[in-house]
Amino acid sequence: MKILVCVKQVPDTSEVTLDPITNTLIRKGIKSIINPDDKAGIEAALKLKDQVEGSQITVISMGPKQAEIALREALAMGCDEGYLVSDRKFGGSDTLATSTILAAALKKIGFDVIITGRQAIDGDTAQVGPQIAEHLKIPHVSYVEEFEVDGDALIVLRQFEDRYHKIRIKFPCLLTAISGFGEIKYLTVAGVIEAEKKELKYLNYEDLKDLLDEGCIGLKGSPTKVVKSYTKEQKSQGTLLKGLTTNEAVDAIMARLKEGHIL
Amino acid sequence: MKLSKDIYVFIEQRDGIIQNVSYELLGEANSLAEDIGQKVVGIILGSEIEVMAKNLIMYGADEVIVVDHPILKEYMTESYTKAMTELIKSNEPEIVLFGATSIGRDLGPRISARIRTGLTADCTSLCIDPKNKGLHMTRPAFGGNLMAVIKCENHRPQMATIRPGVMQAMEKDENRKGIVRNVAIDFSNIGNEVEILEIIKKNKKVTDIAKSKYIVGGGRGVGNTKNFEMLNKLASTLGGEVAGSRAAVEAGWIDADRQVGQTGKNVKPDLYIACGISGAIQHVAGMENSGMIIAINKNETAPIFDVADLGVVGDITTIIPPLIEAIKKAKAEGMDYIAPSSLKYMGMENILFNKKDGIAYLTINRPRFLNALNRKTLLEIGAVVDLLENDESTLVVIVRGAGGRAFVAGADISKMQDMNVEEGEEISTLAQTVFSKLKKLPQVVIGAINGYALGGGNELAMACDIRIASSRAKFGQPEVKLGLIPGFGGTQRLQRIVGQGYSKELIFTGEMISAEEAYRIGLVNRVVPPEALNRVVNDLALKIISNGSKAVKLAKKSINEGGNVDLESGLAIENRDWTNCFTNEESKEGMKAFVEKRKANFKDFK
User: Fold this and answer.
1) Does residue B203 surpass a pLDDT of 70?
2) CA B434 from centre of chain
3) Alpha-carbon A69 to chain mean position
4) Which residue from B30, B144, B400, B465 could staple onto B448, CB 3.0 to 4.6 Å apart?
């Protein structure tokens, strides 16, 4: 079985901070990681490979050359081969353009099942997975928590806020995985060395142009555009009281509750 | 191409229950519709769901499209995508909105790819660009560190998923009219590639903390289950719910459905009390829009204090138990006016207050809003007035407006337009109470009017004993232009100052008058050049202060009380207060100095 896993390299947003003076994002020194939901996707792929003999996992990422690091890590985790989809023409793509390009690349490589993470922590859109499935005209299930192979299909557990659906979905299909896919496998030294030996493969616009409409990729092919971005306005400074006795603290809180008409 | 420009709202129902986010989106769609002048259409998909259409109209849908089919009973990507896509293609709406739920975030992308249009995820605000009527969609990125405004100029419809809990649903209106349209969709070509084998409901009782007006949130600093029980008690005393950060959920102190933050729920209660929460950006993103945030934390550098209206550095285990008792007591006894003793904790935002050499300066300080009076400002003025009542060291109070353009341009109408009858009555009662207290202060109150004194501003000025105007000042009671009447004392005080004729002209026309005209009709005592205003008012204050303070206060009392009674009674009041003067040493010094032809020294008698 041919398993394709899509991963995105993202800044570790839990470490992103604001410069208190300029009120801008400090990105310097923030390490890049494999997006956590995508890591869950890799775990899911490894689990699927264990269940279906003779499977091969191909990991694919779209991004600048720097994303090779994420692919190498995925190989070290146990993926068999890695593709970097990269071209200047792909820059500035929104989710729709990105999914269009990735769908072309996935089609070119060939697949039985595609696994993506539910969403990336930098954009949090959760769109690219379902959009890829639509471009490839295959069914998908998102928010997948568990699965098992059942003949020509997968039986997956799809999470909602208030329920689960146990769904049977036939191959070929796409799943978007949520963090929490069993144990994260830690890298072994042997795995890392093995991964270093593997050659990464590359796909650029020339490789994919038969499958792509130039008007549907990059900044030009993106329906959505960023008008502006800003860091959130700092709230006007509240009052900070310290060194109060318990009674004073209670008085202070009660004053606010009265003032705010809460009592 | 037909351009219907309607706003479509995907209505999410589960087991025949319309999800809150759908009502919120109908509310938001209505405000967008005002700007692009089109109708709001709710799309509801399901099985045997037509009865729900009526409800959607009551909450703001002008039209409801119902697709009723057994295949739509439970959400499935393909059947829902097919139905929505066909409706969008045949009607060409301008905008389509989805809740950013696990359904909307699955359905939206699939539709956007099928139609090839843009979709903006997890928006927290929407607005219409006045220039080209395009939709501007604001969403957080980088874990809430960055906000981005997104547009979708050349593709239609413009689509967005909206986070639950951020938009405002409309009040239910049972008389609202709308039409219901049933549309049949052919699902016969949907294959069996995907089938639901089983539906497993999460069986625990789900509390939607987002609905609570008061939330007590706990974080890692709470320490243990027992302490969390205390937060629970605080929440239930307030009549609210307990919630927590991710750390609290991971520690097993509360259930995951009570998690607030980027990966949990977005909440905006009237009150959020953050206990032992450090304030990671992911948590703050989910609660920072709360009406009031009070944070208690041992660590004074905790980032939660940056978003808190009130931060208390301290230990929750010692503060919360007496706080619970205090709240219980307050609830049992009923709350009145803010006690002056609490003033120092109030964190005055809208007024400045300082005192020097017997003169107190009360400055209305909202220059960005032309010092308009909102509830909080009135409360703050009231608190200061309470404080002054027993302040022996002050003889003159100067009331002025910050910023040079306005004294007070009126009441804060933006805050008033949504008020109901009770709230309308309450704000008038509050303002009248505060202004009457100001008028009755033992001290002399001088209004230094530097700019607009309109509506509530003129009413505040009239509650002063003496009004000095800059030549730039403008006066008026424009309420009738808004379909209101003066409610902070205007219909009563104005006629007592300028007589009924001028009073009626001003109030009936709602027109502004110049400082000169105000002077001519006796509304102000003097008009001075703008740059001289502060000096003139100060000189006036100093002249008053140089006199016997007890006599000045008694004179004010006598004039004030006499103003409301007939002459005979007024003379009796004067007689009482005159007599009163002889009971104090101040009058003795004053008369003695006069006889001795020297300046009286009243300082000792203040």
Assistant:
1) no
2) 19
3) 15
4) B400
Q: Which CATH number fits domain B350-543: 3.30.950.10, 3.50.50.60, 3.90.226.10, 1.20.1250.20?
A: 3.90.226.10
B13 closest CA partner among B94, B69, B55, B75: B75
CATH architecture of B546-605: Orthogonal Bundle (1.10)
Radius of gyration over every alpha carbon of chain A, rounded to an integer in angstroms: 23
Q: Within 13 Å, how many C-alpha atoms sit on residue B555's CB side?
A: 11
For residue B205, what pLDDT is reported? 59
- Check CB contact under 8 Å for A252 and B312: yes
CB B149 within 8 A of CB A228: yes
pLDDT at A22: 60
Longest Cα–Cα distance in chain B: 113
Residue B185 has pLDDT above 80, yes or no: yes
Instruction: Give the length of chain B.
Output: 606
Q: Which residue has the tokens 């994919």?
A: A208
Asked if A228 contacts B151 with a C-beta cutoff of 8 angstroms, the reply is no
Sort out which chain A residues have CB atoms less than 8 A from B314's CB and list them: 242, 244, 246, 249
Q: How confident is the model at residue B138 (pLDDT cuts 50, 70, 90)?
A: very high
> What's chain A's length in residues?
263
pLDDT tens, residue by residue, A199-256: 999 999 999 999 999 999 999 999 999 888 877 655 556 778 888 888 888 888 887 8
Angle between helices B104-115 and A128-135 (to 10 degrees): 40
**Contacts with B343 from chain A: Cβ below 8 Å:** 255
Q: Known catalytic residue: B380? A: no
Residue where the block lists tokens 């796909």? A203
Q: Which of B579, B578, B561 is nearest to B570 (CA)?
A: B561
Does pLDDT of A18 surpass 70? no
Q: How many CB atoms lie within 10 A of CB B72?
A: 22
Judge whether B351 and B400 are in contact, CB under 8 Å: no
CATH superfamily of A2-216: HUPs (3.40.50.620)
Interface check for B268 against chain A (CB to CB < 8 A): the answer is no
* Nearest Cα to Cα of residue A226 among B440, B141, B574: B141
Domain B7-182 has CATH 3.40.50.150: no
Q: In whole angstroms, give the CA distance from residue A65 to residue B596.
A: 98
Task: Give strand pairing partners of B66.
Answer: B44, B182
CB contact under 8 A, B319 and A249: yes
Contact A254 B14 (CB under 8 A): no
Closest CA to B389 of B436, B351, B430: B436
Higher-pLDDT residue of B279, A7: A7
Closest CA to B26 of B41, B16, B38: B41
Instruction: Report the side by side order of strands in the sheet with B179-182.
Output: B119-123, B158-162, B95-99, B7-11, B40-46, B63-68, B179-182
